[in-house]
């Protein structure tokens, strides 16, 4: 009896060992098929993608059967897709920057020649010419400076503002005159509500570009509707800052423009617009330590607020 029990126990032990070995082998192959191979495949994809992240063909395609692994693959695919698009956009912007620098270089030379001729025009005795010549000279000088700034931007970044005390009303009148000349046939009125002798501390050239971009955008938005409209600029002298508001009676900003308001090549409000005007204006205002913000927009029009801090050294 004892021998029979011992023999039975040995057979049970051997059977258990065989079952354990078979189970272990099955678990090994199951783990290899369900976890190890997918993880190894993901690691391989990541290595290949890292070698050339701009190649969209190297983006992983989720195929794991395990839910958690598939979710990880889908998250990785989204990350790789976003990165590839960002790299392509960066490359396009670099190419665009190079092209703009070349164009600005040649344009600067052309405008410099034109500037010499306008200097002679200023000496004319004709009353009309004498009245218009300073505006022409100012516009060409501003264009030359802009070209030079563009070339400098290609090497480093937008130069910092040269802050001076200036009469805001004179600058605004110059901007409005430029907008009226740009589209003399349009049924758009321009108005300014600025306290007399309001002096602000800013860079005149850069602030001209800020206001010109905002008012040009407003004018073009109204023109696109084919209806009459108004662009209004208002300024306030507050305790801590100067506040400038630019409003229009246009159709308001579309959803895409609001979503990418200060993003170059994505925030254009018009068809074919690049959105660069607002980006430039925002960067220039930030250079003054201020802010450019969308106050509101809708069917009744759009309002932008500029805030320029006075700082400790201002009057």
TrEMBL record:
The keyword Oxidoreductase does not apply. Residues 69-96 form a coiled coil. One of its GO terms (molecular function) is phosphorelay sensor kinase activity. The chain crosses the membrane at residues 12-31. It is found in: Membrane. It catalyses: ATP + protein L-histidine = ADP + protein N-phospho-L-histidine. It is an enzyme of class 2 (transferase). Keywords: Coiled coil, Kinase, Membrane, Phosphoprotein, Transferase, Transmembrane, Transmembrane helix. Residues 102-312 form the Histidine kinase domain. One of its GO terms (cellular component) is membrane. Pfam families: HATPase_c, HisKA. Its EC number is 2.7.13.3. The keyword Protease does not apply. SMART domains: HATPase_c (SM00387), HisKA (SM00388). This is histidine kinase.
């Amino acid at each position: 009896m004892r021998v029979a029990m011992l023999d039975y126990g040995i057979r049970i032990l051997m059977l258990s060992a065989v079952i354990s070995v078979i189970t272990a082998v099955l678990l090994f192959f199951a783990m290899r098929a369900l976890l190890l191979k997918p993880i190894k495949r993901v690691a391989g994809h990541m290595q290949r993608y890292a070698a050339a992240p701009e190649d969209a063909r190297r983006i992983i395609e989720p195929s794991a059967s395990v839910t958690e692994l598939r979710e990880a693959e889908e998250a990785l695919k989204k990350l790789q897709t976003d990165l590839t698009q960002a790299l392509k956009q960066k490359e396009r912007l670099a190419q665009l920057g190079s092209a703009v620098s070349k164009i600005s270089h040649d344009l600067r030379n052309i405008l410099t020649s034109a500037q010499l001729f306008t200097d002679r025009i200023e000496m004319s005795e004709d009353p009309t010419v004498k009245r218009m010549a300073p505006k022409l000279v100012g516009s060409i000088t501003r264009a030359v400076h802009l070209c030079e700034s563009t070339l400098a931007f290609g090497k480093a970044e937008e130069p910092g503002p040269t802050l001076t005390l200036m009469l805001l009303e004179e600058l605004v009148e110059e901007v409005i005159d430029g907008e009226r000349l740009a589209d003399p046939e349009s049924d758009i009125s321009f108005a300014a509500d600025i306290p007399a002798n309001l002096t602000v501390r800013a860079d005149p050239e850069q602030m001209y570009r800020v206001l010109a971009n905002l008012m040009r955008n407003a004018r073009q938005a109204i023109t696109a509707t084919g209806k009459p409209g108004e662009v209004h600029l208002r300024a306030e002298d507050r305790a801590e800052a100067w506040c400038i508001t630019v409003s229009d009676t246009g159709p308001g900003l579309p959803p895409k423009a609001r979503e990418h308001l200060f993003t170059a090549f994505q925030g254009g409000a018009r068809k074919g617009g690049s959105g660069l005007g607002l980006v430039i204006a925002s960067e220039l205002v930030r250079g003054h330590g201020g802010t450019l913000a969308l106050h509101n927009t809708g069917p009744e029009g759009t309002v932008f607020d500029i805030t320029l801090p006075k700082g400790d050294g201002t009057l």
